[in-house]
Amino acid sequence: MTILDRYILKQALVNFGFGVTLFVTILTAGDLLFRLTRLWLQTGLAFGTVLRVFFYSIPSFLIYVLPMAVLLAVLLTTSRLAAGSEVIALKASGISLKRVTLPFFLLALWACTGTVILSEWALPASVVRLQEVVGEESAMPDWLVQENTFFTDTSVPGMERVFYVKRIDRERDLLHDVIVQEFDQGSLTRIINAEQAFIGADQWIFLNGVYYEMDEQGRVERVVRYQREVVSTTQTMTEMIEARRKPQEMSFAELSDFIEREGERGQHTVPMEVMLWQKTAIPFACLVFALLGVPLGVTSPRAGKSVGIGISILIVFGYYVFFSLSGALAEGGTINPFFGAWFGNFIGIAAGVILLWVKDSH
Residue 256 burial by CB count (10 A; 0-12/13-18/19+): exposed, middle or buried? Predict the structure, then answer.
């Protein structure tokens, strides 16, 4: 590593730390901190417990914050280099703008690695710890229990039930808007829809719904509407809550295995395939933002921190608009799941390469 690389990297690391602090504060203060403060003041929950909930929630924010912080760090550092005429001096010495990009790519690579570690290990572990804290405190509100979760019940030999749950009411141990797929020896035999479900006396009790009985070819054989449907189980509600997982909270390998199992059963897995590839696209956004940030920072040499923050927010907003739209198209089957997850990165790479080439040629 040359003196130039160390010089640039030192400034970029300081700005990166500033960016992480800033964006974590922005993302958490708008919702999480407000709710936790209200919970602490209104319920008398121990301050230590509130802090544990906050810190266990941080990894879910950091996955998105690290790429944003890379972009801000690159913008602030390059704009400062340009404002001090250092970029001009480097070009006069025969050092191209592409060469100046290298230390920023090193920073982005570190951030990319950190994002992967967060997604693969820290986030799943923090979810488990958060569930433990929620289970310990009866005063915890419903919003701390994530919506749109799923879990499995394999307590009956030979039978597996996959639950998809819209919302969990912890105060009453009640599930809302439930879809259950029943598999007997690996074959789908019944799909149960219910407005509510709960466990009582070693039984799952489903209320106000309809179930579909399937034949050996997987076709609907009979449709039954019911007010109350009962099936046996040895699982408790506490065990169910601890076992629930969202696809976003799984590691790449765990989600990949789950998609494979669901695909073998003939289930629609495209939305989960999009989530799978998004797990690779989001860390790579660190490198994309580094590529975009260098030419944009040089273009606005007199931009202060406030302007850099504004530009960063606009670019991130545009990136996630593409990210969401292409993901929705992929989930609808219009485009390939991989392309849908990576479309924002492809656009960012193309724009960054063009901007860098234009600025380097002047």
Answer: middle
